[in-house]
Design a protein that fits this description.
The complex is a heterotrimer of chains A (101), B (479) and C (164).
Chain A lengths: L2 H7 L1 H13 L3 H26 L2 H31 L6 H9 L1
Helix pairs in contact in A: 2-3, 3-4
Chain B lengths: L3 E3 L2 H7 L1 H18 L3 H25 L3 E3 L4 E3 L1 H20 L2 H5 L2 H17 L3 H19 L6 H32 L4 H10 L6 H18 L7 H9 L2 H24 L5 H4 L2 H20 L6 H21 L1 H30 L13 H4 L1 H15 L5 H14 L3 H29 L13 H16 L15
Parallel strand pairs in B: 1-2
Antiparallel strand pairs in B: 2-3
Chain C lengths: L6 H22 L3 H22 L2 H25 L10 H24 L12 H11 L1 H22 L4
The chains are: A mainly alpha (101), B mainly alpha (479), C mainly alpha (164).
């Protein structure tokens, strides 16, 4: 199989992930979109590891761990945000900011 | 000392002692903060940071050049000069930390983030660069997230976090592409790969990978148009943390890009001539946009944020001509780090940690708090590039060398000079506000001895450094 | 450019299609908990795709860390915050984001299509090589990872703690 097929095939996944990060308002859904985009990246890393050697797999493992840590931090932020402001909507903050002014 | 290639753990601990000192300090300070002895914790963090700084100076004087673990990490002149600039910025922002933040976990996180930033400038391998940058930015996410203040702080955190994750994803994908085409990750093998230029039709794909990596680091070093998180983040985060973000965290990104462009990606400048032009356009818009927008600001922290983006643009000139101008970057980052961190220190002193810092707080500062006013003036003049302060020497040397590099350099230096002139206008406006004698009811300046000491040291440093620029040049990069 | 399509490729494409479908559903449902369930489906599909390529070690780590760790965190966070019903996106933000994402992906796709294809024959994760690389040559990475993890532990616990 060609590496190109594998690389192009994960692009819709990347598209959905990046769209989710930029467009959604619920913080937890943004983190879910981060995981989706990361899956696309990991699949690309896996494909390129089969072509070029096992160092790619080491890289993939490290990227998985880093993104998992970021997701954990983001979820802690979401819980804190909900406790302080009562909602996890990131655009509501702008409305609250305008109201406060 | 001649270059050694070393695999021994003991020599690793010896040469990396600045970093290991900071890590041990982070753990000890975390434990002490747990038992709520705040003053002791702050003193111990100072001790560890200062010892780290003095170790770096010691290594600088000994001309250390060592490579470790098969070209993975190296301690050479480039690393050590960068270490000095990064540690100095962190010390000043440590001095700015207010009581409330100290009670929480700000100090160990600051030390951890600083240690990771020090590792970033010593790596010579893309995987390690990725990990160290992430390790340096995770504590920064937490440090910015002090929600109790106002909604600005929340917006700052969210924007910073989302852009940070975007930068991680871009770096990971760019790294995947680069590894997938070239088969190697360390700087040396990438350099050899590009030199031999065995590329065929996949040249554009690997250039895309490299541009993704540079874009990811550019998010961190606030290059336009990826700087939008920085303005709100610097304004919304506590002022002492903004000092840390704008000096050490930003410099980590800029030094990382300069490192990449001078070692691994250097042959690309000859392979693809338009690569230099892309970087030139990036530097141009990063210089022009924030200087123009800063003219209409009414908030001190926001103005300092725009000014730091503008300085990232001046430093981005080094990316366009890395082989000719890289040595000067070492001096520039040191002066920028001191000046920017101390200007946030003064803002913290007069305006507290919140995001409300209108210009009116500066009125009659010379009468109310003369030391803070003098320091702020010196810092702003150094950032603007007015002699005899260190910023002038840094900008002068940098623009001169850029102009002598090529015709493109002449145009870039011209734009840089004009934009520096524009920036003098808004800095001078702030200084003028300090001198006006008017009743200032907003100001409650909390003077402490340690901020006094830090300010005096910074003024002396900014004056003295003008005369010793070559001591801090980047002389050699081992990879 | 001759494309080799065999049974392996077809299974891989099926797995990727399943992953894309589930991720699309995860974004579009209203309830966060349903979104998390679809995310599991996407994880399983991606792991299958990785196994199909031959990188089974990566698939294992992927499943362990994501489906075993991050997913539990997401479900807990979804249960601890309210409301569980999604906030609908604003129309123009959604359009702008879609165009941006499309541009980025189109750029990447064009670059991929220009380059020539590398054909891989058969690959299976070489566990001893991976372990040697991770712990022997690149041992420093674990050191730096522990820094990052320590920062996250301190930070996340401090952010989410109750006493304020």
């Amino acid at each position: 199989m060609n590496a190109i097929i594998a690389l192009i095939a994960v692009l819709p996944l990347l598209l959905i992930g990046i769209y989710g990060i930029l467009a959604r308002r619920h913080l937890i859904r943004i983190i879910i979109s981060i995981e989706i985009a990361m899956s696309a990246v990991i699949l690309s890393i896996g494909t390129l590891a089969t072509v070029k050697g096992s160092l790619g797999e080491v890289l993939g493992v490290l990227v998985i761990i880093i993104i998992a840590l970021e997701a954990a931090l983001g979820l802690a932020l979401a819980i804190e945000m909900d406790r302080t402001y009562g909602s996890v909507d990131i655009l509501e903050i702008r409305k609250l900011k305008e109201e406060e002014k | 000392m001649p270059a050694l290639i070393d695999q021994d753990l003991y020599s690793f601990a010896y040469y990396f002692s600045p970093i290991i000192t900071l890590l041990i300090g982070a753990i000890i300070v975390a434990l002490i903060t747990l038992v709520k002895r705040i003053k002791l914790a702050k003193m111990i963090s100072y001790i560890f940071m200062l010892s780290s700084l003095s170790l770096s100076f010691y290594f600088l004087s000994r001309n250390v050049e060592v490579l470790f673990f098969n070209n993975l990490i190296s301690v050479d002149n480039f690393s050590i000069v960068s270490w000095i600039a990064l540690i100095v910025g962190a010390i000043i922002s440590l001095a700015a930390l207010s009581e409330e933040l100290l009670k929480r976990e700000a100090q160990p996180l600051l030390l951890l983030s600083l240690a990771a930033s020090l590792i970033v400038v010593s790596t010579r391998d893309l995987i390690l660069l990725f990990l160290a940058i992430e390790a340096s930015v995770f504590p920064a996410y937490v440090l910015v997230a002090q929600f109790k203040r106002d909604y600005f702080s929340l917006e700052a955190t969210i924007k910073f976090f989302i852009f940070g994750v975007l930068s991680t994803l871009l770096f990971a994908y760019g790294l995947a592409i680069t590894y997938g085409i070239s088969g190697s990750v360390s700087f040396l093998s990438l350099y050899n790969y590009f030199e031999k230029s065995l590329l065929g039709s996949e040249k554009s794909f690997i250039i895309l990978g490299i541009l993704l990596i540079i874009a990811s680091l550019g998010i961190k070093s606030t290059l336009v148009p990826l700087h939008v998180w920085a303005i709100d983040a610097y304004q919304g985060s506590p002022t002492s943390i903004a000092a840390y973000l704008s000096s050490t965290a930003k410099l980590t990104g800029i030094i990382a890009i300069a490192l990449l462009l001078s070692t691994a990606f250097k042959p690309i400048f000859y392979l693809e001539p338009w690569f230099r032009y892309i970087l030139a356009i990036l530097a141009l818009i990063t210089m022009i946009v924030p200087n123009v927008v800063a003219l209409v600001q009414r908030n001190i922290k926001r103005l300092l944020a725009y000014s730091s983006v503008a300085h990232a643009g001046y430093m981005a000139l080094v990316f366009v001509f890395p082989s000719e101008t890289l040595p000067l970057l070492g001096f520039y980052v040191l002066t920028y780090s001191i000046a920017k961190a101390v200007s946030f220190l003064v803002t913290n002193r007069i305006s507290g940690e919140g995001s409300e810092s209108p210009y009116e707080k500066l009125l009659a500062l010379f009468k109310i708090d003369p030391l803070a006013a003098t320091t702020f003036t010196v810092a702003l003049l150094s950032l603007a590039g007015i002699p005899p302060f260190a910023g002038f020497m840094a900008k002068f040397l940098l623009f001169l060398n850029v102009a002598f590099s090529s015709i493109l350099g002449v145009y870039l230096a011209l734009v840089a000079l004009i934009m520096s002139g524009v920036s003098v206008y808004y800095y001078a406006y702030l200084i003028r506000l300090e001198v006006i004698i008017e009743k200032n009811s907003l100001l409650k300046s909390n003077k402490t001895l340690e901020t006094d000491i830090m300010m005096i040291i910074s003024i002396i440093a900014l004056l003295l450094l003008t005369f010793f620029p070559s001591y801090f040049y980047y002389q050699k990069i081992l990879f | 450019m001759d494309l080799i399509i065999d049974s392996n490729t077809l299974l891989y494409l099926v797995a990727i299609g399943w992953a894309t479908l589930f991720s699309f559903l995860a974004i579009r449902t209203r309830d966060i908990l349903y979104s998390a369930v679809f995310l599991v489906g996407m994880y399983v599909a991606s792991a299958w795709a990785l196994i199909q390529i031959g990188a089974w070690f990566l698939a294992l780590i992927y499943l362990f860390v994501n489906a075993g760790g991050v997913l539990v965190l997401i479900i807990f966070a979804a249960m601890l915050t309210r409301p569980t019903i999604d906030i609908p996106p604003t129309k123009e933000l959604s359009r702008v984001a879609f165009i941006n994402a499309l541009l980025i992906v189109a750029l990447i796709a064009s670059m991929i299509l220009i380059s020539k294809s590398e054909i891989y024959t058969s690959f299976s994760s070489n566990l001893s090589l991976i372990i040697k690389l991770l712990f022997n040559d690149y041992g420093i990475t674990l050191f730096i990872l522990s820094l990052a993890a320590l920062a996250i532990y301190l930070g996340a616990i401090y952010i989410a703690s109750e006493e304020k």
